[in-house]
Amino acid sequence: MADSLKEAEIFSATGMTKDGAPFAAAGFCAAGTSKHWEEAVSRFSNVPVKSSSIYTVDLNLAMCLANYQGSSLLLAAVCCNTGSDFGMDERTGGVIGEPGIDDESADSVVSWTSKGFPGVAVPGGPGIYADESADPDALIRASEELSKLLPDPTEEGISEALEKAGISGPALAVFDGSGKGAHGAVYAKDGAGKVLCEILSGGAVSNF
Fold first, then answer.
1. What is the torsional sign of CA 89, 93, 99, 101?
2. Strand partners, 9
3. What is the pLDDT of residue 104?
4. Distance set, CA 40 to CA 13, 14, 21, 152 (Å)
5. Greatest mean pLDDT range, 68-82, 164-178, 189-203
6. What is the C-alpha to C-alpha distance for residues 53 and 42, in angstroms, rounded to an integer?
7. pLDDT by residue (tens digit) across 104-155?
8. Helices 136-147 and 155-165, interaxial angle, to 10°?
9. Taking CA 9 as the corner, what is the angle to CA 182 and CA 203, rounded to the nearest 5 degrees?
10. For position 103, what pLDDT does the model report?
């Protein structure tokens, strides 16, 4: 079991939910288990997530992730595009944290998982978690820098925003995929500098 994200593997998956919402997921897991978790989160294609409520969309995503919690799954993030406009500046369709544990609404406050990984999630996105050695103030700066990338986040832009904020080690980020001005994305960077980034584009998923 990895005690640090520096020792963990990253994984990602994309697809379409049962009710037609494109999704992208990424996360950190213990060494040797990335294929298992990639296949597990791919089964989001079997569940519906759409709702007229911004809160219910995120709740549906969080509940789906909770079904896949396990001792080897350290952190996970998922976003989806429901194709709905919920109102002025209202975004949803993005969750991040420790599956089955971090199911509270985003509050822009740094919190820690049960394994000691710090993170912060902003209402309407983005959200970011990092290795246990990350400075909490750097996480706040990172969320601010990542917000500047909307409405068009890219892998390069996310990497540069994290570096600018002082997050140079392992990190996991998510952007909401549903609502006005939303552009869903998940981003994972491991201890060796490998990056997996999935960007939702329109009604389809494109890999960057």
1. positive
2. 29
3. 57
4. 9, 11, 18, 28
5. 164-178
6. 24
7. 556 678 999 988 999 998 887 799 999 999 999 999 999 999 999 998 999 9
8. 140
9. 25
10. 55
